[in-house]
């Protein structure tokens, strides 16, 4: 199952008002955060607040994710046990930050399996999202992408990554001064290739200048152009832009559906069992079908409806 993740809203687990408000916002995914958004003294209370919100809230079909703390801390195992034992039936995925190697994902997989078996939840039902946030994680990203059948996404974490490589910038998501090209291109493409090679989604990280929606659009547009499936949003004002940028246009969606219908007809016995055919002035073939399927799948996930239909030639 491929979940829509055009907009992935970060919600502090220690803030009851935000936990309630997030349920009404039109983000595809919410992740309730136990890591950076929670002070150490607030983490225990946040675990229970998240369990309550997952069990009692109305999330309206959103993908429900909890970001636990990373394995280098003393909080991770208790995050997982409390949240999954308390609200596993109302949880889609756990997000594991600062993933550096495949073993860290496998450790989370093992712990999840034990909890699912103990509580009677379907084994393997809870997915994992892995955040790539430093040089070691990027170097090991192929092994990380292949580490677990639970894995659903690879997520770029730009702030920690910038710090890990000593990038000369304090503005997360912006280009560092003195470098004339896109400083994030290699990182984004490296994560994207690993994700696609293993059938995973790729999600871009946050843009922290939350009131500058036009700048958010520019940064998100670069990731969408590469083929990313979505981006983190830190403020309600970024959600609409993310949903738009990571959705096909109506024209592209309609055209993709027409290609799929036309190709299915022309390759059938009724259509002459052709390997290629014309759709208007455009030649379509198997490669066209594959490209169209990507756009059509994204359009359907975004809730687009067709405004045109295919009519077989007389």
If you had to describe this structure to a student in words, what would you say it looks like?
The chain has twelve helices and ten strands. The protein is α/β, with parallel strands linked by helices and 314 residues long. The strands form two sheets. The protein has an eight-stranded parallel barrel, surrounded by six helices. The model has no long low-confidence stretch (mean pLDDT 94).
Present the secondary structure layout.
Layout: E1 7-12, H1 16-22, E2 29-33, H2 43-56, E3 63-67, H3 76-87, E4 93-96, H4 102-119, E5 127-132, H5 135-139, H6 141-145, E6 151-156, H7 158-164, H8 185-197, E7 201-204, H9 213-226, E8 230-233, H10 236-245, H11 250-266, E9 277-279, E10 282-284, H12 286-301
Parallel strand pairs: 1-2, 1-8, 2-3, 3-4, 4-5, 5-6, 6-7, 7-8
Antiparallel strand pairs: 9-10
Helix pairs in contact: 2-3, 3-4, 9-10, 11-12
Alpha-carbon distance between the two ends: 38 Å
User: Strand share of the residues?
Assistant: 5-15%
- The count of helical stretches stands at 12
Strands in their spatial order, largest beta sheet: 1-2-3-4-5-6-7-8
Integer average pLDDT: 94
Let me know the number of strands. 10
Class derived from helix and strand content: alpha/beta
The sequence of SSEs as H and E is EHEHEHEHEHHEHHEHEHHEEH
Describe the global form. Answer: globular
Largest sheet: 8 strands, parallel, barrel
| Helix content percent band | 40-55%
């Amino acid at each position: 199952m491929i979940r829509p993740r055009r907009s992935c809203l970060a919600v502090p687990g220690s803030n009851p008002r935000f936990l309630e408000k997030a349920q009404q916002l039109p983000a595809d995914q919410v992740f309730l955060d136990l890591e950076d958004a929670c002070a150490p003294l607030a983490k225990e209370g946040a675990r229970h607040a998240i369990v309550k919100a997952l069990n009692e809230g109305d999330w309206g079909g959103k993908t429900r994710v909890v970001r636990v703390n990373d394995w280098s801390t003393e909080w991770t195992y208790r995050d997982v046990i409390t949240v999954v034992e308390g609200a596993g039936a109302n949880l889609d995925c756990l997000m594991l930050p600062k993933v550096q190697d495949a073993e860290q994902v496998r450790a989370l997989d093992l712990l999840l399996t034990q909890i699912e078996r103990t509580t009677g939840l379907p084994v393997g039902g809870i997915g994992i999202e892995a955040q790539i946030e430093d040089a070691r994680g990027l170097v090991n990203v192929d092994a990380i992408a292949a580490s677990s059948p639970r894995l659903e996404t690879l997520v770029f974490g730009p702030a920690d990554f910038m710090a890990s490589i000593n990038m000369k910038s304090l503005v997360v998501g912006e280009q560092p001064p003195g470098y004339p090209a896109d400083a994030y291109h290699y990182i984004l493409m490296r994560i994207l290739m690993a994700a696609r090679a293993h059938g995973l989604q790729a999600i871009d990280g946050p843009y922290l200048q939350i009131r500058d929606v036009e700048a958010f659009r520019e940064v998100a547009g670069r990731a969408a152009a590469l083929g990313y499936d979505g981006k983190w949003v830190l403020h309600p004002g970024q959600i609409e832009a993310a949903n738009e940028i990571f959705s096909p246009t109506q024209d592209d969606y309609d055209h993709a559906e027409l290609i799929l219908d036309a190709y299915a007809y022309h390759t059938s016995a009724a259509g002459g069992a052709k390997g290629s055919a014309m759709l208007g002035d455009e030649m379509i073939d198997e490669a066209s079908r594959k490209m169209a399927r990507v756009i059509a799948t994204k359009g359907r996930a975004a809730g687009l409806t067709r405004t045109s239909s295919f009519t077989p030639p007389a």
